[in-house]
Amino acid sequence: MSATDTFRLLHVDDDPAVLDLTSSFLDRELGWEVTTLTETSPEAALSRVADDADAGADVDCIISDYDMPAMDGLAFFEAAREHGITTPFILYTGKGSEEIASRALNAGVTGYFQKGGPDQQRRLANRVEQVLDDRRTQAVADRYSTVIEALGYPVYVVDADGRFEFVNESFAELTGYDRETIIGSLPSLIKDDAAVERAESELGGILSADGPDSSQFEVDIVPKEGDPIRCRDHMAALPYDGECFEGSVGILRDVSAERRRRRELDYRTRAMDEAPTGITMTDPSRADNPMIYVNDAFVEMTGYDREAALDRNCRFLQGPDTDSEPVETLNEAIEAGEPATVTLRNYRRDGEPFWNRVSIAPLRDDDGEVARWVGFQEDVTEYRRYRRRLERQNERLERFAGVLSHDLRNPLTVAAGELELAKCATEAGHEHLDAVADAHARIEALIDDLLTLARDTDGDMDREALSLPTMVTRCWSDIETRDATLRVETERTVNAESRRFRRLLTNLLGNAVEHGGDDVVVTVGETDGGFYVADDGPGIPESERDRIFEAGYSTDEGGTGFGLEIVREFVDVHGWTVDVTESADGGARFDVRGVDAT
Fold this sequence. Notes:
α15 packs across α16. This protein is α+β, with helices and mostly antiparallel strands. The chain has 17 helices and 22 strands. The protein has helices spanning 16-29, 42-54, 73-82, 98-107, 118-151, 169-175, 179-182, 193-207, 256-274, 296-302, 306-309, 324-336, 381-425, 431-455, 468-477, 498-516, 563-574; strands at residues 7-12, 34-39, 61-64, 89-93, 111-114, 155-159, 164-167, 214-221, 229-237, 247-254, 278-282, 291-294, 340-347, 353-364, 370-379, 463-467, 485-489, 493-497, 521-527, 530-535, 577-582, 588-593. The strands form five sheets. Strands 2-1-3-4-5 form a five-stranded parallel sheet, with helices on both faces. Strands 7-6-10-9-8 form a five-stranded antiparallel sheet.
């Protein structure tokens, strides 16, 4: 039966008049809605109970006479038990004796009453009432037990002495102990002292005069093996009358995964709150897609606190000089449900304009619908100013390069031509004219180096696989080597931009020849991360090594001071590094590292 069904009684007596009288009395006296079925023989009653059970209509209580022709009431009771019928059974007989009563109670009947007047009928009705009340209580308990077991929550009952009286299989699985070990044990089996004290305190609050009916609190369950498991304990006292406390009941729920998720969510929320970039979130399901979240960086960047910013569309940051084109780009992206990035002019709360790089992206729900829009906002005002200054600087540099390339080089070419004419017209005393020619050559070299620094240290990099030995040999043929010797001790291939790499090698080799002496030996070899150029010349003093890559630094009066700076610039543009040390022969050694080489 269920907790709300009509109760079904079966009264068995060979006297139809007794059946009618008793049925009418029970219908009137009982506080439950009942249906009373009647049979005049135990055989028919057994058949009816079995058939009704097969049809899912159980009988809640059987009332039987004792003295019947074919089978007395106790024999009927025993036959019912043999058929597996455990329905509460009340013996209601007109032939009473102490012997029959003793046999009935020893057999296990639910009640024994003698027939008689209204008082005896009332006693019968009271006992039936108790039976039905117990049946209803059991039905409710069975219903909730089914629900709890279906949910899979661990359930426990602790008796008045503080020992486990009942635990279900889910509880045993959670703790790692079998039920036989847990039942009869103290809670300290699965809890530390602090957890035991917490549970006792919560139970004390429930039992207090003005305490709650139940309490929920978190507790660490210590399993037989493994780490403690964080659980939420929903505890209540078992129902009791008067002052007799009978124990407590509780349901545990493992919240360790929930705590981990909550902790991860907290970390992510903190990351958003404390991110150095402005972060916003909007709700497109609401009118005008208002912001529902802004982080600290947004507040600091715009000057609008959360109270002033939330529940508004972010267009309030726009102003008179905000270009409509990036705004339209954002609107189109939102309409299409696609991400977008724009830079537009916004205004802080105090009216100060700033350049805002805004990136938006949709966050979709499980159905693929846009549930939120997240925005990232970055103040790029200083960056734009820097970029503009850099553009103006590059424009000035380009004009300077033009002056070097044309306005200065052309007069120099004319001067060199006039110098040659002067030499031809003069038969002797050319030493002064030769000095002028050397000055012209130095100016020409200086112009070449300055143009290289101005035009070749930036720009696109088309890298290719270059044979290091081949490139070294070509570069060696481009310089005045005098009596110097070249040794190439590598077969390495370098991934580099050809023109810049050739100039880099030429400058390193030329530096070795220029400063190493007429018969210097120059060696090019490989290292784990790149290659080196070394010589056996006088070397570079350790105190000077930090300065040699500076613009204008040279120990040669005829040098431009830009050769090694060009080396450093071309190394940088490739993403490599260069260092100078002492070679194995005491000369200078330049190591280029970080090279993509095979």
